[in-house]
Amino acid sequence: MTHLRRLRIVTRAGGVPSRWRLSANTKDILTGYLFLVPALTFLSVWWFWPMAYSLYLSFTEWDFLRPEKQWVGLENYTRILMDAEFRRVLGNTLYFSVGSVALSLTGGLLLAVLLNTKLRGSAIYRALIFSPWITPTVAAAIVWIWIYEPRVGVANYLLSSIGMRKLEWLGSRQWAMPSIILFTAWKGMGYSMVFFLAGLQSVPKELYEAAEMDGAGLWTRFWRVTLPLLSPMTFFLVVVSLIDALNAFDQIRVLTQGGPSGATRTIVYYLYQNGFEDFNVGYGSAVAIVLLLITLALTLLQFRMARRWVHYD
Amino acid sequence: MIRGISLVRTANTGTRSQHGLHALAHVVLLLVSVAVAWPFIWMITSALKTRDEVFRFPPSLWPAVPQWGNFPEAWFAAPFTRYFFNSVYTASAILVLQIAVAALAAYSFSFIRFPGRNFLFIVVLSTLMIPVVVTFIPSYVILARLGWLDSYKALIIPSGANVFGIFLFRQGFRQLPRELLDAARIDGAGHLRLLLRIVLPLNKPYIITFSVFTFVGYYNAYFWPLLVTNSPEMRLLTVGLTSFFIEAGAYGIEWPLMMAANSLAIAPLFVLFVFAQRWYVQGVASIGLKG
């Protein structure tokens, strides 16, 4: 078949745009669409349709079981606005997201700067610090429950050995969130470290040399050379990490189940409890739409800010 | 000339302060590394202790008599073999599906001109801004209607398309020299053959990086599997671990067994990490530099 076609090109070569070329073009176009069919099918069924359906469900009241969904209009949304618990959930989410992102990014950046000094054995340090990131959050979290165990856990052993009072950790309303943040930063710090390291290695050496000749010390070089050059990456990492944090579920489910008394209930956990524990499908869907809006707003805001102050060379 | 001299000088004065700096960096990195690795060390030594030993305070690092038998005991205390198989099977199936779907789409977006291509690309990319959790309730309803709940299909099919994979593959594909493809086209190769014989083999680094991240991601996945499976036969390792933790009364009593089961669940990932570390690092780097 192909041979035959090639033959026909040869025989018609030089002539007016032949029918073969035309049909080959159409065939290319068809192939182009055909190759997209699997992706678009999956996306339609498991992304676009669910999005639209989520929006629809957020205007109804339903429990997964009743054959009829009851249309309630904006009621779920007005309930969200009035819901004191939802406001607390948003506060928890902010606390968790900002806390864990700030901790893991700052730690990651400092470690990357240290690793970038071309030390012997830096590959081992890098591997060790990155290792939590590859483990299942669930398994790692169970280990941390054991570490945070209030009576015989190693965290309290550490505190008591430096003469401090033992803490209830995950069982305390005050300390549960910091405990989860510490866990999350522990797990994610290596990722930001490797990420920053890649950025640092792309900073041209001459810039440091020039700065050093101008008498810039370590500190000045870090603030005036390293940080501005890293800002596009930092920006990207902040956005991605914040969105990740916003969607954190595994560690909250394992470590505290949102407790004690709601102290660690974040927006995704609230969605889970409403949708899949209490079967408030409508209300849960409305929470999902709010989560979507927050994510979109965050993404757009960050992109806009990025254009303003990010350094591009 | 002047530049040369000053460089030598800074290099000389640099070494002394650099020695101090290096020593400091070593100390900090060593401390942080030990602290970060500590939970895993603690997990393994706790797994080797007896039930009495773990509750001793102050705790000892190493058990008096290492209880190696805890590992098999934990593994057979729950259907962990089945859980492990489910996790590996699901992650592999999703990986194969995602590579196939993403490769076809990325090829189309990279090499074929057709009306609406940019529009469709933006439509596809727009899903990157949607948190996957937002699709969970409706996807659950769809699975229930199809009668697919509590099956491999429920675990695998909804994850068929990975938009990030399409994006990543497209980045790789577009770096191929155009002439190479044109030459192959003139030789009469169809698009599918081009993709399989030329484009994919030349993009091995991208595929390996993607595979490592995807496989580990789905092996570690918890939220979605928790929602759509409920029989023990369908549980993934992550869900199995938590149910062992909660149901089997392991919580609070059986810490050594719990830590042994955890160690066994994490071990394959560490083995993979040792061999594939380069791909992890490259993956994180390429995501960062291209983002």
Can you walk me through this structure?
The complex is a heterodimer of chains A (about 325) and B (about 290). With about 325 residues, chain A is an all-alpha fold. Chain A folds into two domains: about 1-40, no CATH class; about 80-310, MetI-like fold, CATH 1.10.3720. Chain A has 13 helices and two strands; from the N terminus they run H-H-E-E-H-H-H-H-H-H-H-H-H-H-H. In chain A, helix 3 (about 75-80) crosses helix 13, helix 4 (about 85-115) packs parallel to helix 8 (about 175-200) and helix 8 crosses helix 10 (about 220-245). The longest helix of chain A has about 40 residues, at about 20-55. The two termini of chain A are about 50 Å apart. Mean pLDDT of chain A is about 85; it is low at about 1-20. The two termini of chain B are about 40 Å apart. Chain B has about 290 residues and is mainly alpha-helical. Helices cover about 75% and strands about 0% of the residues of chain B.
What is the number of helical segments of chain A per DSSP (H or I, 4+ residues)? 13
Measured on Cα atoms, how large is the radius of gyration of chain B?
25 Å
Strand order of the largest sheet of chain A: 1-2
Largest sheet of chain A: 2 strands, antiparallel
Largest interface: chains, residues each? A-B, 101 and 98 residues
- Oligomer category: heterodimer
Mean pLDDT of chain B: 87
Question: Which features characterize this protein?
Answer:
heterodimer; A: 313 residues; mainly alpha; MetI-like fold; 2 domains; two-stranded antiparallel sheet; 13 helices; 74% helix; 1% strand; globular; disordered N terminus; B: 291 residues; 0% strand
Q: What is the secondary structure topology, with strand pairs?
A:
The complex is a heterodimer of chains A (313) and B (291).
Chain A: H1 2-12, H2 19-57, E1 60-61, E2 70-71, H3 75-82, H4 84-115, H5 122-134, H6 137-147, H7 154-161, H8 176-201, H9 205-213, H10 218-246, H11 250-255, H12 267-277, H13 281-309
Antiparallel strand pairs in A: 1-2
Chain B: H1 2-47, H2 51-54, H3 70-77, H4 80-111, H5 117-126, H6 136-146, H7 152-156, H8 163-173, H9 178-186, H10 191-202, H11 204-219, H12 223-228, H13 237-246, H14 255-290
Helix pairs in contact in B: 1-14, 3-14, 4-8, 4-11, 4-13, 11-14, 13-14
